[in-house]
């Protein structure tokens, strides 16, 4: 059975760029946009055009540059925002306006001092107005994660009638549990009239470390777009990480879901974004962290040397990492030492290995990690005939 495709909506240049202290200049944004297009994402959210002249220009330049992906600009449910976004997206081959409004009781009361009915009216008029500029209009129900499902369904129904092509259901505060978020998507699938005319989209934040799990629950329950960022960067604890959701779908074929992303470009894209943003990738970050394919305990090293699959569920080459690494520390065993010694040119017999291992342990107790230069020194100091 052929797999259903989940659209990957990358918002590194919009939600991702909302990381405190991280600002991308225009050439950096263009370089990242070109890379995202090459990576195979379906949608690039290039910015929030009304927010500043710089953002407007960046969105316009990305729109003109990108060849394959849809290029999207964010707006509030405000006419001026929509006009400016439409203008910024003029050169895009596939333009999308992403408009919306807060729908949770707390947003309605504190942000808008409005009623639920007034919010629906504003949502509908924003979508209708955006439709006068572009065919592809995505609507976001901000704080949908804390919006009650019955009201959310009414909002969705109204904006579909007004022409929304995609319904973004953001867990803006990263509050939902996976089962709860999945149930929300299922509820909308089953209770919104006209839902077959629109794609449901997951937009999850990571405040409780659940963004990836929630997005995956979302697509299991019928959503067909995931909004995410490279390295999971974004406001506060960040957004859903693109590399994680892409690889979850790829590593679990029984879900019958996949994306168009070329996973072999994931590691280099992660590095590019990290460098441009001046934000290091935490070493234990799934998929793209420096330790994601590094093994340091003797038991694991022995297993991986015998067969990589004993302790790795992903072939590093599939995400653009050269090879698994065997890190030599005081917890490494003879198998790891023999393996690394061979890589730097020493084919040791069993007797030689026992002797070199004694020397290795003395070094390893003094150093956090034994590097290739140390290995040469260790072999030189070991009393073996060579
Ligand atoms: O998290 C959120 O609700 C958002 C919307 C503006 C789409 O980023
Ligand atoms: Zn967001």
Comma- or semicolon-separated keywords:
two-stranded parallel sheet, elongated, TIM Barrel, 14 helices, 14% strand, binds 3-methyl-2-oxobutanoic acid, alpha/beta, 386 residues
Any overview of this molecule?
It is a single chain. By secondary structure, this protein is of the alpha/beta class. The protein folds into 2 domains: 4-277, TIM Barrel, CATH 3.20.20.70; 294-381, no CATH class. The protein has 14 helices and 12 strands. β6, α6 and β7 form a beta-alpha-beta unit. The longest helix is centred in the last third of the chain and has 17 residues, at 350-366. The mean pLDDT is 97.
Tally of discrete structural domains? 2
Give the biggest beta sheet.
8 strands, parallel, barrel
**Going across the major beta sheet, what is the strand order?**
2-3-4-5-6-7-8-9
Coarse morphology:
elongated
Q: From the 3D coordinates, which CATH architecture of the largest domain would you assign?
A: Alpha-Beta Barrel
Low-confidence stretches: none
Number of strands: 12
Roughly what fraction of the amino acids lie in strands?
Answer: 5-15%
Individual helix count: 14
Q: Helix/strand/pairing class, anyone?
A: alpha/beta
Give the SSE string: EEHEHEHEHHEHEHEHEHEHEHEHHH
Roughly how many Å is the radius of gyration?
Answer: 25 Å
Termini, distance in Å?
A: 58 Å
Helix share of residues?
A: 40-55%
- Which fold does the CATH topology of the largest domain refer to? TIM Barrel
CATH class of the largest domain: Alpha Beta
Bound molecules: 3-methyl-2-oxobutanoic acid, zinc ion
**CATH superfamily membership of the largest domain, which one?**
Aldolase class I
Mean pLDDT metric:
97
